[in-house]
Amino acid sequence: MKQRDPDSCVSCPSDLEWERLETVVGFLRVFVQVTNTFTKSSNSCLTANIYFPEICDIHLRLIEWNKSPDGFISSLAVTMRKRFDEFWNRNHRVLAIATILDPRFKMKLVEYYYPLFYDSSASEFIEDISEYTRALYNEHSVGSLLASSDQALDWQENHHHHHHHHQHEDRLREFDKYINETTTSPGQDSKSDLEKYLEEPLFPRNSDFDILNWWKVHTPKYPILSMVARNVLAVPMSNVSSEEDAFESSRKRRISDTWCSLRPSTVQALMCAQDWIRSELESS
């Protein structure tokens, strides 16, 4: 450095300064690797489930730094962790739910990391995530039932005048209900999609796992939970485009406020149009 720019190097760094530099560079390397996972993934579709393990890794590094006997390193960690905790407290629930919806991890990743973060309080935070997940599932379950009821009422209203001559068949409707209840084994189908899903073994981890395709295939098995997955996994976790560099300072590489304020229906229409145009260009 002194040969290239004599004015920039007054004296050689001490051994302590080199150790600090190595520590800082090591952490920055992890940060860059995690950021590149978010922005330069080989998967063209970045789903919300990829963020939790990467952010948890950063969380552990900050805890490790915070315990450093070196006052300089620990002071850096305190400053960085203050900003990180603001992000974590706002987002850790949705991040955890996204990874729970990954069949390779389910609750296990939460149960692994939270004791490392919260020590003796971990069980409370794990239960909080479980309750939050159940509440989200129940919300979708109620919405699904209401939608089914509305469809049934619409069908009944639209077809009522065609079925006056079949009124005698309605007399046996309660009988059919009785048969259905008495021929169903006790406890059969009493478990929710969420309970069934969490009880199943973990799906093997591999590099070319496609979580969207997995949920598409398993929608008949988990009809309500698949709706939760569809909504949660599509949540954008970053306003940096996956095709750009997260460290580029230019505003044009960030999703603008105009895009962020668009209605979901408008965003869906634009995304579909872009997909159709891109497919036509690739096929031509």
TrEMBL record:
Q: Name one GO molecular function term.
A: DNA binding
Query: Which intervals hold domain hAT-like transposase RNase-H fold?
Result: 41-140
InterPro entries according to UniProt: hAT-like_transposase_RNase-H, HATC_C_dom, RNaseH-like_sf
- Domain HAT C-terminal dimerisation positions: 193-277
The record's annotation in Pfam families points to: Dimer_Tnp_hAT (PF05699), hAT-like_RNase-H (PF14372)
Q: Which residues form a coiled coil?
A: none
Locate the transmembrane regions by residue number: none
In its UniProt entry, what is this protein called? HAT C-terminal dimerisation domain-containing protein
